């Protein structure tokens, strides 16, 4: 890659806490410094004032698509970018924002008499892919920095990034962790998409499936395991995995419309 012009990258944010951008600013170490030798950051709201309307090589999009008013901006980014990468749960699946898709009157509950303010005019919280074509996803809440570096590095070398579809349990077992169910706890690792290296169960913390579902998650069996092994009530077992998979579950409001 010596002598090649730097790849132009830009970061854009939509409905989110911008925690994934913050996570980017926390990036460090040799892998990231090496990456900076090959990319030129032309827009990144959390870290610089410059913006761009020009063509970019890679657009990183954070946050969910929850206002029709954002569609034009998303389409403009898509038109200008060779590659679009959604990063963070909000952008990849709708993330935690999509919890509102399962609720009525959420605006009134949060904002009371101010619920009708125009800037609160939002619809279902959706992944970025509901508005534009997304080429790759970097999952997690916040997104996984190592995976981010790996995906970008693959693209810079002209390779297709490989993103796991199997569950976190695979990585957990490879790390030889004792299963939290064996310790009297609970965990969503059997339905969560791998790629993070199972850091939560390794620390004794239940996986909350922040990377979304693995392919073909057996949600009904998860509910049974949560009830039979972890003593969850029927209702709690049913809703436990909703936090990061609200748009992906069998009871997702969007699925009614398919
Ligand atoms: S994925 Fe998590 S950390 Fe990233 S923007 Fe969304 S809520 Fe914030
Ligand atoms: S602790 Fe969680 S991720 Fe690890 S094996 Fe058990 S269910 Fe799977
Ligand atoms: S173990 Fe689960 S909650 Fe933790 S980072 Fe991985 S997918 Fe997210």
Keywords, please?
258 residues; alpha/beta; 5 strands; five-stranded parallel β-sheet; binds iron/sulfur cluster; Rossmann fold
Chemical compounds bound to the protein = iron/sulfur cluster
Strand-pairing-aware structural class: alpha/beta
CATH architecture level-2 label of the largest domain: 3-Layer(aba) Sandwich
User: Tally of extended strands?
Assistant: 5
Biggest pleated-sheet summary: 5 strands, parallel
Helix percent reads 25-40%
Low-confidence stretches: none
Describe this structure in words.
With 258 residues, the chain is of the alpha/beta class. It has helices at residues 19-25, 29-36, 71-80, 89-93, 106-111, 145-156, 168-174, 199-202, 219-228, 234-239, 242-245, 253-256; strands at 7-13, 39-43, 56-62, 81-87, 136-138. It has two domains: 7-156, Rossmann fold; 168-252, no CATH class. 32% of the residues lie in helices and 11% in strands. Strand 3, helix 3 and strand 4 (81-87) form a beta-alpha-beta unit. The model has no long low-confidence stretch (mean pLDDT 92). Bound molecules: iron/sulfur cluster (3 copies).
């Amino acid at each position: 890659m010596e002598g090649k012009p730097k790849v132009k990258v830009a970061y854009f944010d939509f409905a989110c806490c911008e925690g994934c951008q913050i996570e980017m600013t926390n990036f460090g170490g040799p892998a990231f410094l090496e990456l900076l030798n090959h990319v030129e950051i032309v827009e990144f709201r959390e870290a610089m004032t410059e913006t761009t309307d020009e063509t970019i090589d890679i657009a990183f999009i954070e946050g969910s698509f929850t206002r029709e008013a954002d569609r034009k901006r998303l389409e403009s980014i898509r038109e200008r970018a060779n590659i679009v990468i959604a990063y963070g749960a909000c952008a990849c699946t709708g993330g935690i924002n999509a919890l509102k898709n399962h609720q009525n009157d959420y605006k009134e509950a949060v904002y009371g008499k101010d619920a009708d303010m125009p800037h609160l005019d939002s619809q279902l919280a959706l992944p970025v892919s509901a508005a534009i074509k997304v080429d790759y996803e970097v999952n997690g809440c916040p997104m996984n920095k190592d995976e981010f570096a790996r995906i970008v590095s693959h693209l810079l070398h002209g390779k297709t990034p490989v993103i796991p579809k199997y569950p976190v349990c695979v990585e957990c077992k490879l790390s030889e962790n004792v299963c939290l169910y064996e310790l009297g706890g609970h965990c969503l690792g059997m339905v969560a998409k791998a790629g993070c290296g199972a850091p939560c169960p390794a620390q004794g913390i239940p996986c909350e499936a922040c990377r979304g579902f693995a392919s073909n998650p057996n949600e009904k069996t998860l509910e049974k395991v949560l009830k039979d092994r972890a003593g969850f009530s029927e209702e709690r077992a049913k809703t436990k995995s909703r936090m990061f998979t609200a748009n992906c579950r069998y009871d997702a409001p969007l699925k009614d419309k398919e």
